[in-house]
């Protein structure tokens, strides 16, 4: 999935300056692209635009050459459920549901069969070393474990696009490396992976880098 932004413009009402003005960039499949830049440069906002959560005020986002600006909210929601995995700085797990249920939620929104959801979730939890926490609630696990669970949720549907908003920002070096390597491995399957980060050491290992001023 090649994702391209063309002439992207975004200005919020009453804002003194636009977030973006004429930004163009391409994000290739099979590669991890790090988005870097100072705080306030629009790194997170760019991910929300790429993920069809925010509509730009100018320009367009093309998915494999197909414009998305004219899509309805329902069409955009379907694409997010089917094709996009999100990983945020905070794991954003539902505190009332078990770890296994949190991971399976991604499959529910994508229309995946429940038995398949559970099977794939258990495989992913095992891959990232948190299978023994499957029946626990988010409040009973560490921050590093929670982020691994969030990564399992993002990867459950084998999304063609994964967007990470500072996914390693709250983690120790070891946990950060696990998450980063998993994102890079997913890119190797042919997915398009775009990650906003302040960590220069990790960004230096990305396949590509987009620096926002």
From TrEMBL:
Superkingdom as given in the UniProt entry: Bacteria
Record has DNA damage as a keyword: no
SMART domains: AAA
One GO MF term: ATP hydrolysis activity
Organism name: Sanguibacter inulinus
Record's protein name: ABC transporter ATP-binding protein
CDD domains: ABC_MJ0796_LolCDE_FtsE
GO cellular component: plasma membrane
All copies of domain ABC transporter, residue ranges: 3-213
